Each structure stands twice: as structure tokens, then as C-alpha cells.
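[job 4417] fold queue: 2 targets
>>> target A
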Amino acid sequence: MSGAALGLEIVFVFFLALFLLHRYGDFKKQHRLVIIATLLAWYLCFLIVFILPLDVSTTIYNRCKLAVNSSPAESNGSYVTLAPSKQKCFKPWSYIPNGIMPIFWRVVYWTSQFLTWILLPFMQSYARSGGFSITGKIKTALIENAIYYGTYLLIFGAFLIYVAVNPNFNLQWSQLQTIGIAAANTWGLFLLVLLLGYGLVEIPRSHWNGAKRGYLLMKTYFKAAKLMTEKADAEENLEDIMEEVRKVSESIKYNHPLRKCVDTILKKCPTEYQERMGRNMDDYEDFDERQNSYPSEKSLVKLHKQVIYSVQRHRRTQVQWQILLEQAFYLEDVAKNETSATRQFVHTFHSQEPENKIIQYFYTPTVEWYWECLLRPWFYRVLAVVLATFSVIVVWSECTFFSTEPVLSLFAVFIQLAEKTYNYIYIEMACFLTIFFLSICVYSTVFRIRVFNYYYLASHHQTDAYSLLFSGMLFCRLTPPLCLNFLGLTHMDATISHKNTQPTAYTSIMGSMRVLSFIADGFYIYYPMLVVILCIATYFSLGTRCLNLLGFQQFMGDSEMTSDLIDEGKELIRREKRKRQRQEEGENRRREWKERYGNRDDSTRNRAVHTDQKESSFTETNANRPLSKYTRSNGRTERDRIELLQDAEPLDFNAESVNDDPLESDSGR
């Protein structure tokens, strides 16, 4: 079992990272190198979080063995017995042999650092480049990253000069390595505290507000109003870009040297625009070299970049709008079913996607009603209380983890109590829950934040390559300081505990931070205390209020602008719901008409043809018959015509389809 736990976690974390990447990325349309680089970055960061508890339990066992070896003892099988106290050091079930963890951490850490500081920034610029060749994209990426890399070299040079000037230090390779690690961890810790302070408050509060009746529905209306504005802006931007592409496509003919670049741009356009531009092509006309109105290759590169961005944004807003509509319709159904006497959940619209038969068998309308209308609010309240308790413990421990006598950090108290009894299962579970909660607070903030339209992680495969790579960079920079902060909270870091004990394998690869004493004894200890100020600011929504004052509308219950956007979103959802109802009613009428009269179409046509032939022959042979004969025949033909008209498909007319609202006419356009 020594390596089984490590192997199982390695496999499990890989599929976890693959599942999350599949949810946000698009494996079919995005470049394979982007998918592989992002998957590797996410995988390494998640792997550090899951493997670190095993490192802690292994370190505690190794400390026990060292204590036994330094005192009279006798060996007995898989454990060592102390002579004075007859205490046993059991080997943990997840024990990892010596020598494996240092190599494992060294490979994982330096690979993640190579990704975040060198490879991923280069791939970001490469992915956003509008070049038409690999060489052009590489050149653009190198130019854009020249300032980026120069800034990091400047920071590293400042640390290097500080150590060189200080006469107490002799520059060695290990010390240079420690300086580089300290510089990277300092930057990561600075960002970590900001994200952690937001997540510690926002995650419990979001679950508590989710239990309130009508809160999620009001917030969905608010999102609908904002998303409609963004959707209209994306459509307008795409129309403008496509107009520029059309002009370029008409000016550059088939035998122009830059025609290949134009064809590359046209392939990135939506299908309807490609067909529209293809019909207006006059490729038989040659270009005139004497004309100077042709765009340059540099302008085509810029246009190519704009096309990629506008098409991605337009597709993302369309998908998000449909998802938001489904969410709004479902929340409205929940509000209606809360007062249902039958206690069965009734949907206004049927799901467009086929449901799983197993889920449909167990998740019946009755079960769905009890969960959505009765149990789910209470579950969210209990979960919010548990998360708030964890947040309070984290804030308290962040402010007191530097105190070793007495030990004030609650996480350190829990680990030390379990260490005395060598309860490795409890140690690993406590460590896992602690670092998992810290990771959720930090990583969820990374998934929530949005920097205009440059960085935005959108689910349902709508995240662009730039945002995926940027998230990989953030994860690789935040995870090492997050783990060091966790080891400090539990006093497993010798720099914090001030004890001459065996360090964890993860701490050993970081080197001794005593090379930079002002960071080890100052920044790493006192800067995390700022999480208290950030939690208070998040609780009172100071950041949200500032953004609202700057013109970025945020959801605030006491804001007049929020109320207006909620009313606007409610009206938009009502229109879309009415439109969906009309479509379903029309489809139902057509289906019922076909089921009722569909089998009579062929027989009616045959009867009509036979009647015409019979009447024509009857007219030729009996021209002198009385007029009443013709009258009867004409009456029969009239009845056949009426029957044919009855078999025709009815018009889908509804009084509500007549719309005088200019907004709805625009959306229809």
C-alpha cells in the first residue's frame, strides 16, 4: 500500500483536471498545444494540493523514527517500540518510501514554474497573434514578451544585488535558487491573500443567499439585462468586422499575393457570412498593380486578430444567453411550484436535451419538488454555516500562526493532537480538508473574476485560448505559496515553528528562507494578516460599490440601477418565454394535425384525380344531358375542394405575434 495511495491520487487528479478543462475549453476547435499546456498546468497544481497531506503523514512517521533511533528502543516488525514509554510508531497506510517525495516535488515544482514564467506567457501571445504563419506568430510573441521577461529579470537582479552587497552571505547556487523561489513565492503570496480574502466571505455568503426565496431569480434577471447589452454589442461588433472583411475580400482578387491571407480570414468567419461574401465574389477580375488602395499585410494581421476575437465573443454570448434563459425558466418554475398542492414539480418547458433514464427513474417529479422547494434551501443554509465556520477558523489561524508558545493556530492544534497518538487517517483527513478549503476559496475566485473581455472563464466550452492559458499561469503561481501558507498554519514548516525537526519533503526543495531574513521573518508572517481587512471589505461589499460608482453595474439590493436592470431583465425573460410558448404551441398544432389528417393526404389526392378524369369523360360523352347533372357534378367537385382545403396545414397565427415593440423587432432582426 506504500505506493498505491500515491498512484491512485495521481490518476484521480488527472481525470479531475481533464473534466474541468472539458467543461471550460473546447477540445475540437482549440489548438492541441493550448489544451495540453493548460491541462498540464491545472494537473500539476491540483496534484500538489492532493499529495501534500501524504507528505505530512510521511514526515510525522519519519520524525517518530528519528526520535526512536535517538533513544533506547527495540524493533518489532513494521513499527518501532520506545523502551521507556512502550509507545508504538505505526507505519501509515499511505507511507511513501524515502527518496521518492523529494524527486517528485522537484519535478512538479520546477515544471510548473517553467510553465508559468516562460512557456504559458509565450503561448498566450502566440494564441492571440493574428499572423498567418508560424514564424510570424513566434516573432509577434517574442516582441510582446520582451517587456514581460525584462520585468522579471529586473526583480531577480534586485534580489541578487541585495545578497551580493550583504557581507554575511556568500553567493552559491543553492542560495541563488532560494532567491528565485522567494521572488516567485512573494509575488504569489501577494495575490493569494487578495483572492483568499474575497473567497472566505463570498463563498459562504453566496450559499446563504442561494437559500433565500427569489434571490437567485432576481440575480438572474439582473444578469439577463447585462448579458443582453453585451450580446447586442457583440453582434454589432461582429457586423462591423464582417463589413471590413467584405471590403477587403472584394478589393483583393484571386491572383493578388495577399489573397491567401484573405482566404485564411474568411475561414474564421461564421458560415452565413462566408456564403454571403462568396456570392458577391468576382474572381474573374484581375487586380491592377498601379492601384494603391490595397491593404497591407500588417493591416490584414490586425484584421485577422479582430475576426478571431469578435467571432469567439459573439458565439460565447449566444450560448450564454440560451443557458441563462433555461436557468431563468427553471427558477420561475421553482417559484410557481412552491405553492403546489400536489407536491409534484411541473416544468413549463420540456428539456431540449435527452435526460438520462436512470436519473429520470429516481429523480421523479415528487422527488424534484421535495428537493427544490423544501430540502435545498435548508441544505444551503447548513452548508453556508459550515463554510462560515471554516472561514472564521482560517482567519483566526492566519493572524496567530506565528505564535508557537502557546500554539494559537487551530489547525496546528488539531495536527499536534493527532501527532501524539499517531492517528494518520485523522492527520491526512484534517490536512486534506484544510488545504482543500483554502484551494476552493482561491481557485473559485480565479474562476469567478473577469477582467473586461480579456480574461473570462466561461463554462460550456466557451473559454478562449488566452483565458485558459492565463488561468494556468495563475494556478501555477498561486499553488506553491498556498501550500507554504498551509504548512505554516499547521506548524509543519520549521521556519514558523522554530523547531529543529525534520522538514517535509515539499519544504526541503524550497531551501532555507533565512537567506532573505526580511522575507522569512517579516513578509511571510505578517502579510497574511491583511486577510482580515480584505474579509471586512468583502463583507461590506466595498469593491462592488466602488465598481458600481465607476459605471460597472454590479448586483446590489439597495441600488436604483440594480432595480431598473432587474425590471428590464424580467421583461426580456417574459418576452423570450412568450416566444418559446408560441413556438411550442405551433409545433404541437402541426403535430396534432399530421397525426389526425396525415394518412388522408394520399387518398384525397387519388380521389381528386379520379374524379377529374371521370368528369372529363362524362362531359365528352354526355354533352346534351340536362343542366342538373352538371350541377350535381360541380357540387361534388366543390366538396372535394373543401376537403382538400381542410387537409392543408393551418397557419400558426396568434394575436400575441403582432408586436409593436421596437425592441422585440430589433431582436427579431
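>>> target B
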Amino acid sequence: CPAAMLSLLSAHRGPAAVAMRTLCSHSAARQAEAIYWNDKHDSNESRFEKILIANRGEIACRVINSCKRLGIKSVAVHSEIDASSKFVQLADEAVCIGPAPTSKSYLNMEAILQAVKQTGAQAVHPGYGFLSENTVFAKRLEDLDVVFLGPNSKAIRAMGDKIESKRIANKAKVNCIPGFDGEVKDADEAVKIANDIGYPVMIKASAGGGGKGMRIAWNDKQAREGYRLSQEEAKSSFGDDRMLIEKFIDKPRHIEVQVLCDRHGNALYLNERECSIQRRNQKVIEEAPSVYIDPDTRKAMGAQATALAKAVGYDSAGTVEFLVDSKKNFYFLEMNTRLQVEHPITECITGVDIVHQMIRVGKGHPLLLTQKDIGVKGWAVECRVYAEDPYKAFGLPSIGRLTTYSEPTALENVRCDSGIQEGSEISIYYDPMICKLVTYGKDRQSALNTMVNALDNYVIRGVTHNIPLLRDIVTENRFVSGDITTNYLPEVYPDGFRGKQFSDRDRLNIAAVSAVVFAKNDLRNKTYLKKDRSNIVAGEAKKSFDWDIVASLDGKDLLCRVSYKEGGFTVAFEGSETLQIKDNFSLSDKVIPAVINGESVCMQMMARSFDERVTLQYLGTKCTTIVRTARAYDLSKFMPVRSDKDTSTTIKAPMPGLVKSVGVTVGQTVAEGQEICVLEAMKMQNSLSCAIAGKVKAVHFKAGETVNEEDVIVELEPLA
């Protein structure tokens, strides 16, 4: 991958490195031209000479790559902890703006403005997050005669105010969620308002939260009863019984429209993106276009999105977000006045370099694209690969160093937008995103098939990641059929994600490959100096070998005979099938392209331990198999079994993070389920409660201190 090679070479100096960087730059440019086949511009138009990127990670890399393609010098600003990051290496210049905490670095407006002055940057691209929607920052840049590569501050301010944005949307005749924002006096008025809005409606407490004081009503009877129950619940929970009513969106989908506007009154839409797969209101998987939206609905949504943009005087790339119900009625949610995280999938199906167009517009050039130029070519899917544990609330952050890292960019129609490389550190200070993995195909199924292959070949070691969840979703029946809503995850995984549920065939495949790994290791142990000296019989070297093996996984013991002849292995399971496995991988391979009975099966070698445990990743999920000879298995029955440790008396950190507060002291009596402390990790706050009633024995951390995963924060003593 030329772009990846370029990032590795960027830190090196000397004629050879310069020549190689030039070669890789040209190759990367050719790749970009193939991707951005519809990126209309005048090659002779004026350009910025230098752009500063006020962001970090993958989005900084993304903007820098467009700058390189256009021959524009780039400046990276970075925190102390990011000094050796990929985006810093890619940039032409880099300026340190402070310590790791965002408040002292990427939100440190004064330091960034000083970097702008110091480097002579003519424009600043804010990426997303941090200062990307900060009107004060945009105005300060304007005062310095530096271009803010985003919309004007008036548009940012208008769309950032929820009340004002709804007022502007209504005036622009954009569909908004019908509702009554005033206080509902009694049950009779609740019924009247519900009929005016149209059922179903959501009756909810003005001061509500956590799902309390909230009811859905589908008719007059439910409206009366729901009003009474919600009001009583609100009064007891919040001490405030004021009630609101708004339209309930049945089976909601989160669908957004990408808009692109200039300073000459032109506005167009680049189709929609389906963003309904979410956890904790954060997107996990996106795709473009949406399987749910037909051409007429797309046109109507696009027309309203551009009407809103024009009404507010918008002049950059932005995203108008909608909720879409089960009857394809769509309602305005908000407008994101910045480059969206998931913009690559729009680029894939339209051929437009959105970052380039933002730069052109910032320079004052009109859009050369028209709405007729924007079609839908193929299908694109994006999976957000995070350093998260998907088995904990669909993803609690993980930190650590990427000891081994290999993106699946060798596969066709795969795009990886990442800001890390092998050796990079995932810290507690920033978002845990590893990569935006994008796949493209002529249709949705082609894109999904490529995504499955890409996830299977994506090698990440050193941190826990969410590939098991992503891999399971993109092959799950409801998702594949397109039957999704914003409630998809809790509906499909009501008890949380538990990993791939392996079939008997899956277990045989895992056991067979694990047994072959055992056999290959045994063969290697008997060979040295490229000669086999342990299997000499009557002066002739043996050409075949056999092992009687027991493979134990998922509580089942599978007895098999493994036989080797040059070119492959035969694994015969007692009372079951016989599998032929091609000898086409080595024990050092991270990805195992296994061929089982002529069928390709992709696995990853995660670990091999001294106690005969083989851990493979198969269908996205890790599985550990204990592989022993039949003799070792018989003897293992005499080994004592280790009992599980009682952890109910300890409150452990489920992830690395910062202790925000500790609500108990030594000697205090606590009730079962009582909140003990609050832990913050990567912009998320998590309340930790106790599993039993007891007395606080010890408090090991206080507010402001950092903890690692599994650190004991508080110890309890059970009540007598």
C-alpha cells in the first residue's frame, strides 16, 4: 500500500528515502485518482500553499493525504504524547501544542493559533470534534486573515442551537418531528394533543432521564393512562411532574444526507448514509446508500437538506441528519456543521473527494459539480474498528500498544482510514478508534462479502478490539436482509454480545486446525539443522507421521487421529468426520489461509502456549482449544481443578480510565446495587456499583487517579 509505505518512510532522511517517498507519493496519487474519479476542479485554479490541521489521528491523516495529492504543504499540531504518531510523520511540519489532556492541547485554542502564526498557514482544517464547530475559533482565525475550512460562524451558531435550528428548519419547510413543547396540563389535553400530532406519540417528563417518566401511546386510552403513570413516576423520580408530548418514530432509522455548498449560492447533496447500527448513540457500522431509501425518498430528503443549507447560508461540507419511520416518513434531527466521520463511504459511491472540495470552497472557488453529476455507483460499507471490548456493553475502551498490526489493504476494494501503525499506543486520553475499515462493491452483498474477508484478514495484537462484534453483525440475517433500526443491537443481542455462536461444523474446523498446529509444532521440535533425526527406522527416514490427539473446546473433548503425508494432514474424528487440511501455512503466520476439504477457511493464530493451548480467531471470535496427546489427556484427569475466585466483594475497573469520584469511605455500609464510584474513559463516564450488601473494607484509589483494567478500586466485607 503506497500510502502506508509513505507514512513509514516519512521519518527517514537521505537520498534513498527521498527517492522512495517520491515513488510512493506518485503511486498513492494514482490510487487517489482512481478513487476520486468524479472530483471536478480546474487544474489551473489558485490553491492554498499551506494548511494546518487542527486535529489528530485518522482524520488528520485523511486531510494530509488530500493536501499531498494537491501539492499543498501540511502542518500537524500534536500533543506531547502524539509526538511520534502517524499523522505527525505524514505532515510536512509539526508543532507541539501541549500535554496529553485535550483541554491542554487539541482544545487549547491559544496554542493552536500560535502554531498558525508560527508556520504561516493560510488555512486551518478542523476535522471533526475538538474545535470543528467552535464559532469563537472560526472568528479568531478570520481575525488573523486565515481561512477556516468549514462553514461560516453564523451557520455553525444557528445549527448548533437546537431551538434555532428547528425554527429555521420549519421555516425552510423541512420535516420536523411533530410535538408540543409546552406543558401538558392534564389527561384530557394529552389526548387532544396526541390526536393533533397523530399516533403513536411519546409522553415524557420534562425533567426526565434514564427511561423514567416515559410512555408510548398508540390510542386515546393509552394516552390517558400513559399520562397519569408517567406524571406519577416523574414526580417521585425527579420531583417535577411537567409533561411533554411528541411524535413517536416507529422503528426509527438514522439516515443522514451529505451536503456540499459554496459561497456562490450552489448547494447539492451527495446521497444518503445509513447509520442505524449504534451503541450508546454512537455509530458502529454505516453504509451508503441506504437499503431502505428509494429514489423518490432520496430526492425528497436531498431537496430538504439543501433547502436547509441554503436557508442558513451554508458554505462547506455538512451533514443533515434525519429519523425515518416504518412508513418512510423522515424528520429532521440536526445538522452537523463539519466533516463527518463516515464521509469515506460517500466518496466511494460518488467519486468526490469531499476534503478537496472543502479546500476549494474555502479558497473561494465555486463548485463545478452539479446535482446531475452525483449518482449512486455501487455500494460502500464502513466498520469502525475500535480498541474496545465488545463483550462489555457492546464496547468498553481498551488501551495498550499495538504489538502487531496489519491492515487488509492487499485485498481489492478495501480502504483503511487509520491514524495508527504497528507500535502505536492507544491511550486513555483520546477516542479509541483504530481504523475506519471501508469496503466497496458493485452491490450491497459484494461490499459485505469483501467486508467479511477484510475483517478476517485484519491483524491486531496488543489491544482488545471490536472485530468479533463487527464480523458477527455483517453476517447476521437481519442485517444482511436490511431489516435494521436504531434498536438493532439490543434487539438482536438482548443479553449483550457473547461472541459467535459456533455450530458443530465450526467446532470441528477449529479442533482440526488446532490439532494440525499441534502436529506441525511436534514435527518442528523433532527437526534441527534442516534434517529429521528422530524418525529413522531401519536406516530410512519416515515420510508419514501419526498422532492420537484429544482436542478440548467449549466443554467437549474430541478424540481424533492426525496423519501427515507430504502436502497435507488428515484429521479423523472418532465417530464423526474426516477432514483433509492442506499444509499451506507455517507456525509463524498470523493469518492462516486454511483449506479444509477443498474449502478456503480463514483463521488467525492468536497464541500458542506451553500448556498445549492453541488460540485461534475464527469467524471473528477467539476460541481456545486444549490440544493434548491421548496419553496426556488420560493423565490430566488426575490433576486438581482450580476453583473460581469470588469477586463479589471487590469493585474492579472494567477498563483503564480516570476515577472521577468515589462515593464511599472505609467503614461505610452499602446496599446491593449502590453506586460506589464513577470511572471515565475516552469521553465516557461509567457508574460502578456493588454486587452485594456489605461494609467498605478498603478504598485503593481516589478521585483524579488513573486505573488499569482489573485494578481493585474498592474492597467490601459481606454483612454478617
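[job 4417] complete. Note on B: Confidence is low (pLDDT under 50) at residues 1-28, 536-541.
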